[in-house]
């Protein structure tokens, strides 16, 4: 935008009405943000003046606009404004203040973090439900893991929950659930109890203390039919399915004491009880998201016999909009699988209506087939019969599949099912449908597949069905269906009394028609003939042999080479049967062949266990709908990971908030904030509770103000190891390489604006993470950094340099890092077999570590692009320490050498959807420039440019394994203006060698914080986005000097 | 085209292009899928009257929250603009923008209560258009904060004054029924709404009680309903918003009777299919059954249809929907539609069966049998006029053949 125009706009801002101002500023800021932050700042004082306006709406709008500007420069001003507005007398303004906090946090300024959390806590403590809702949203966005903040207000938050506006309720329910689990553990009466070790083992049945458990166990077995599935679901909720699938039997590793100490009772624990009580009325909400969130809490925490409370509200949601119907059904599907009895009485709610969308119909079918019981199965079949005649043939095919599933689950109805299915493939129904062949074929194939599956369960009792199929073989024209029937013939050729007699006739018939069959049928005819030969008795042997021989002869001259090849292989294998050819020189060779043939064709198929989709995510989450962990998905926190000491620390701080609240909020607010429902909805017992806590905090009020500045990191000392490791901001790293003075580097200055790569690599300092802190590891200190070397074991592995240091005074032995699941000894095979989960290659054991000694080991990990910390076990002196290895996406890459031309060519091939950009600020060079050029502009411009380049390049290369392709400088160099400076990096993804291009363009003055715009071109979009976020994060992170 | 980025992370417009490309390339399945995982974003979509509302996110969030919010936006827009279509949105672009601006902030819903929005942003009408033309003052945005935002009943504006105090309670019920091919009633339930239209001054406190609340299977409430009295005595105690709103919705399950019967019969032989449908009263609801209509989709494979009725009119629409509108059932005869469907070449008989959707309306009766006992008004300056009505419509009333 032209600057003259901008000035005029600014003048307009002064004059115009406040509502228009926000519109103006929004438009011009989005345009000017990148280019002229200084001029944009001119308008700030208008908003600051508005903040003092009489009209609360004006104040709120001024705050919203200011926070919406999103410039780093003004963030302190906004913070002050938010702090002021958080104590505004008007509810609306306070609500807007809460809404402004995520925007501030978005700028990722470390120095603000503590202050933001402090304001959130003040707002969470607010009297008005509307403000609490907005504050909860801010909490979930800014610091979802800072649960002590919730703990201090837990009871009050629960009580205010029904009054909070609906959007806030959704968020607040999730937060409260997380807090309860982290603080008090899981409820042992709930479905999560499947994690309890003595649910399944009967070892301690005699002991007195276990009667409680026994009772639970009884209800547990009545309600749930598939305990493994339940256990899997509840483990997925806790650990996330990706990690859970990696360690399928990790429950064995965890000792039973550990587990049972992490359980509480939802009947006796007041904290759990109050949460359940306060979410109960929310099941009547008109907002479907609130209902589902409340249902999720009950699903996880409520005693099993009380879960049925969620059924009616959930089913009611099926009458809301089509879109939410689909989402609700997705969730019900999981509930129904785990606990079929829950919905068993409500089958008619899942009956299909013709106006349902196809996806909804499919989901309902699946739910119906999983909740079918002996009592209801006949009604359900009646329904299914109607569905089979539905005009939507795809849906009809699904119904046929569902019938198969039902039959498998309830074997006593298998016969009825088979009869119904056979009616579908009767010649009459096939012939009549020649008009729409394609659609019908789908149904037909599915019908035969279902029959095949049912027969597999119990072949003997379905002999008639097999015969019926064979009789209709002639009428069935669809190749896949024919092939399937031929397979059935071959597989069950010796079952019952009639089939063995028919088989040779059928085979003869098939052999005659062999040339005109389709390819897949030909394969099956070949296989069936071989199977028949192997099973045939003495008298039939010759017939079978001659038929097979005939088929082989026909196949020899087939048009399809694959058929020819198969026939040849089979013939060679079976050569012992065709002794006419002179192949008898090695009799034992024949033995082997016979054995081989027996193995290939002789084995009978076992009824396969049903495959379930074993990815479960928390109810109501996005991940559950899309079946993968969406970015930002977090499983439930570790039960009881929040210790008493965190809470104690919290209590000390409480008086500050209480006082702040009393003095500021209350005095300002009028009598406008009466609670609408809470008065009657709170039970008497809880009220006394809250009164006592209130009086406690009043007593504490006499203490002096605690220094608020450390509110942001209260758990630094007190948290247990797991918490510590998972905190992003607590990563500590060492900075042992001292900076080579910039002057040395400048000496090597290249006349063209390109910096040599060797020069940069000396300056890179890979970030060092702590795996185990000496205080927790009895003096063993383990640090690790990602290595730039390619892994020696296998290319897709990421190699990590790990340093073991003994800080104690005695020697240590047997130090070993293993997967969390230490039982699976065969690491090598799991490396190959498990495709999608992070895999950890075994490490060479350190037999002894003397005091003061440091040993380096390189470990190799295949992360498969998983960004969640990898849980490992560190063994030392036969004691195990759980540790977490934090993946760094920057090192899932390896440098890809390419020149500038190749780079720009590749870049032009990856436009549009493969290109993502984000902006951030970059300040590292300021320190360097400051130390170097005290006398300001005396040093030539080029130098400051070089230093910026070096800072940026070294930061990039120390945090990501990339190759620096080129550095482009703007040609019309303006003194001190670094705009246009562009660094280009290239790398390729380790696992699949897809190239990934990174360009960083700078913008701004040399001696000021620069705006960096990072662009990534990569075909792998998810990886690219994650990498982009990582790069922006570390670029914006201020440089730490030792 | 106007674009507003709600959060700091820019969402590239190419996501819309991606969406349209996909929805054009796979029209059937894609259009109805509410949650879509695109390569870069997760999309939530709802379709209302031909207009697609799309929300996108890159991180985990409750999907129902997105969908519910979009529904709320659609409701508010159609309420403001008196309907939803492309033209009306184009004509009122400024209002749409202002509404969205007020309803969502930084990706989190801000004000969604229609009554408050109405106070903040005046809905368009002829008078305001005239005023703006005459005075040149184009803003329809209120300058003061509505009092309701800060009160404990955020859905009600304070200081309301009506010349006539009146309140109407209306039971609107929809009947969902499935009758299977054997003519057996497999599912019959009522989905009802208690609509209240209140024009009361001050801050009134209302209590509504039912004569037979035990028949209600499940309920959903407007936020104004207090939970505790319902839990203990099953009475509704609330401070109503102004104007028309849904106080509560309820469900009555497992009803035994339907007011009317629909009997389809089909028999097919050698390329044609005879069809006859009979409709009549089964259980007289006591009031006239009105605007009766039967609709069904001609199945694939039907090339032409020749259907006539002895009462009402039969239309076959372009999308192969056959609709027979009967209106009111005559006293002297039973309405019947009959005729033949001609199948396509080579087809002997029809093995798919269409489903008949029935539509009707009965005024003055709540078929669920729910009865309002009494409505108490408290805290009113002047006595008010009370009125009750009831009606039943067909919801998903389906008869399979």
What do these coordinates show?
Chain B: It is found in: Endomembrane system. Chain B: Pfam families: Adap_comp_sub (PF00928). Chain B: This is MHD domain-containing protein. Chain B: Keywords: Membrane, Protein transport, Transport. Chain B: Belongs to the adaptor complexes medium subunit family. The complex is a heterodimer of chains A (1042) and B (401). By secondary structure, chain A is an alpha+beta fold. Chain A contains 46 helices and 17 strands. In chain A, the strands form four sheets. In chain A, strands 12, 13, 14, 15, 16 and 17 form a six-stranded antiparallel beta sheet that branches. Chain A has a five-stranded antiparallel beta sheet with strand order 3-4-5-9-7, covered by helices on one side. In chain A, strands 8-6-10-11 form a four-stranded antiparallel beta sheet. In chain A, a hairpin with a 2-residue loop joins strand 10 and strand 11. Chain A is globular, with a radius of gyration of 35 Å. Chain A starts with a helix and ends in a 6-residue tail after the last helix. Chain B has 401 residues and is α+β, with helices and mostly antiparallel strands. Chain B has helices at 14-25, 27-32, 63-81, 86-91, 93-103, 114-120, 126-135, 227-233; strands spanning 35-37, 42-48, 51-57, 104-105, 108-109, 166-179, 185-199, 205-210, 218-221, 235-238, 243-252, 260-269, 272-281, 289-297, 302-309, 313-316, 321-327, 336-343, 355-363, 372-378, 385-400. Chain B has a nine-stranded mixed beta sheet with strand order 9-11-7-6-21-19-14-17-16, with no helix packed on it. In chain B, strand 4 (104-105) and strand 5 (108-109) form a beta hairpin. The relative contact order of chain B is 0.12. At the A-B interface, helix 2, helix 5, helix 7, helix 9 and helix 11 of A face helix 2, strand 2, helix 3, strand 5 and strand 7 of B.
